[in-house]
Amino acid sequence: MKHTPPALIVRFIDIMNQYGLITDHDGIILHCNPHLLDVLKYAVSALDEVFGAESASIQDLIRQSVASKKMDSFNIEMDFGDGISQVFGQVYPLECETGYIAALLFHPVDSLRRLEKVSFDRQSKLPTDSRWVIDDEFKTLSFSADEDSIFYGREPGFSIFEAVLEKDHPTVLTAFDKAALTPGELVTICIDIQRHHGLCEVEVDIIYAPDMFYGNRYFVLTRPAVNRAEDILSRMSEAYQVDHDNALARCLNVGPPSISNVRTRIRELPDSWLVKCCLECRVNFHWLYAGLGKKFFD
Questions:
Q1: The dihedral of CA 105, 109, 114, 119: what is its sign?
Q2: What pLDDT, in 10s, does the model give residues 14-42?
Q3: Which of 133, 191, 199, 210 is an S-S bond match for 168, by CB 3.0 to 4.6 Å?
């Protein structure tokens, strides 16, 4: 018996930005949206013409979704003609007059990365901001962190609360709750977090982005609440015994704009400046970097 998908579902699939199709539980394709047809370049009638070797697993997932009457997700590899791409998708069971069918929405994972980058670029205040994508359970989906972060080198999946002091947990939870109630609006807090060199006060920007397809996510940006580079430059000037940036720039063999860019956080303070100052002025690295310990080597 040929199934006829509801017209409302067809319109919904057609307006989605993701690739979309409607199929029966036997793998016969009933409808493809224009976005998918543009990529395929030809009409298709069965799942194996779209998913190739993965079609059997997709068909099993469709049957499972229809039997449970619940949405299911899949993560597979597909070739859209420009190489293998990791693809994320979802299966939605649909009831029609002739029984159950299924709608599939899917898209290369790098499309999600592009969406995240656009969101972060719009939200970011400084080029050096750390970027975090967090799910509804406050687990990291992706992140960027410098070498001083306790998360540097780790795989995503850990809780963001690992770095937050217990006293600040209520503040952070309240901020996440507020962001979830006002999607797209910025919520900013200041808290202390644990870093390798010790506690650091950071400014945290949170935006909640509900998304039916990719899943709800928090976009979080963090930056030092105080400009640590300012303090380091001051200690560099002290070590070189100079009292203005032009003189410090000459000592470091850089142009004055380079110093200015670090002060305004347009760029990070290069490690090479720290090394050069330590070697030439014989000062202790920990003093220069963090203001701790003795100024000079014994």
A1: positive
A2: 887 788 999 988 889 999 998 888 888 78
A3: 191
Retrieve residue 117's tokens.
Answer: 């980058």
- The whole-angstrom separation of Cα 204 and Cα 184 is 15
Q: What are phi and psi of 250, to 5 degrees?
A: -65, -40
Determine whether 213 is exposed, middle or buried from the number of CB atoms within 10 Å of its CB (0-12, 13-18, 19+): middle
Q: What is the DSSP letter of 138?
A: S
- As a whole number of angstroms, the distance between CA 136 and CA 120 comes to 18
Rounded-to-integer distance, Cα 295 and Cα 213, Å: 55
**Dist. CA 193–CA 165, nearest whole Å:** 6
- Per the CB < 8 A criterion, the answer to whether 35 and 18 are in contact is yes
CA distance 151 to 40: 41
DSSP codes, 111-146: HHHHHHHHHHHHH-SSTT-EEEEE-TTSBEEEE---
